[in-house]
Structure formats: C-alpha cells, structure tokens
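Our example pasted here:


***
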Amino acid sequence: MERPSWAPAEVDIDTPSIARVYDYWIGGTHNFPVDRALAARVSDANPVLARTLRANRAFLRRAVRELSALGIRQFLDIGSGIPAEGNVHDVALAAHPDSTVVYVDIDPVAVAHGRAILADEPRAAVFQGDLHKPREILDARDTRRLIDFDRPVALILAAVLHFVPDGDDPRALVEQYTDRLVPGSHLVISHAGAETVPRTAPEAAERYRGAVSEVIWRDTAELTALFAGHSLLAPGVVRAPAWRPEPGEQPDPELAMLAGVAVKAPAR
C-alpha cells in the first residue's frame, strides 16, 4: 500500500505492530490494514478487549484533567504506546499550555510514530526506554530537558505493570521511580485485573503470543500495594470506568481493568 505522509520511512507498514493494533483499538488513526486484521483476530477471542482499552484511555484522560486541576504541570508516561489524538499531551496542554510531557515506550515502532506526531511540539517528547531500567529513563536527555524533579510530577504507568511478573518485584520497580519524586507528585496506575480473570483471557493471550509479553492479572489488594508510600485519591483502586466517571456515564461492569491515582505523602 502507499505510505501515508505521517508514517516514518523506517517503519514497516506491511507487518502488524502491536503498538498500532492498540492505537486502532482505542480509536486512533495511526494504523494499517495488517494491524486491523490482527486486532480482529485477537478480538474474536476476547470481544471486550477493545472496550477495555478504550476505557483505560478514557480513565487516563480523566486522571490527567484531574491532576492538571490540582496544579500538576509535568507528566512522565512510561509504556505510552503511540501518543495519538487525545493522549496526555493533548489533555495537559489544553488545560495549561506551560505543561510538559515525556512519553517512553520500549517499542521502536511506537517511538518512531510518536516522534513524527510530536515533531512540531516542543513541550512534549518521546523516546525508547525499558521500564525495567529506571535510571536510564529518569536521566535521559529528554527527561532532563522537560521534567524538573524538584517540582511535582505525575508518573503514569498505564496498562504496563501487568507485563511485569512477580519475580521482577513490581512494587520495588515502582519505588525506584517514585523515590525521585518530591511530595505532592502523583502516581497513576491502571492494570489488567479483577477479582476474577475473564474466561476469554487465556485464548486471547494465545493469539497475542509473539506480539506482546504475557499479561499478569492482579486483584485490587495487589494493585493497591503498588501505591505504597502514597495516599490514594477517592475512590481508591476501582475498575477503570468507575474512577471519577463523567456525569451520567454508566461504568461497564464487564471490563477487567483496575485503576487508581495517588499523591506522594511528605516524608515523616
């Protein structure tokens, strides 16, 4: 197919990319027929998956609006995927033009698309980084350029920690990031989880195989433990659609995605 102007030259548009599949599921436009075909095969096994991911993105937008209203002007989004329309920088900059946003993703396709999208936006940047290497991310050139760790920061870990197995100690990993944050900073987490894992999850995971890592499902108590050292904002850890929904919005009870936002407490 003909390469559109927004697609970086180095990106293969004939092989599906899980970053672009995700972009398609959440209603983005940075995807191709091969990505949509893979999305359809995975969705056949888990019909609520696309709705779950859209609910996760809607939660993230609400969280950024709430934090902007609380005075947060700096956002570090790790595991961001393609920063397409309606993402963190759109919401944050619409609220306060002096906001800054740093996106980090391990997927080179997501980063390549992100750089093309953000080419004319000096208040936001995207670079390739591994969640498991906090120092490299926190000390990266773009992070230092746009994030002042002497001021409050919103650390966003949306739909990424469920790729971290228990053996890698996700709580200690989160703390390596939050230790650099001053009190008044906020931690935003969403995570595949529910008290009961959806029956379709194993089959959907099989269709994902080779594209993404295994998803680790955690319950409310396990996700709450990842906020250690922080005070959860109301309503606490809940299903993502139930976190401060828009007026009149009815949260979908089928969606197995948990979420919460917390503020870092002052040192005692």
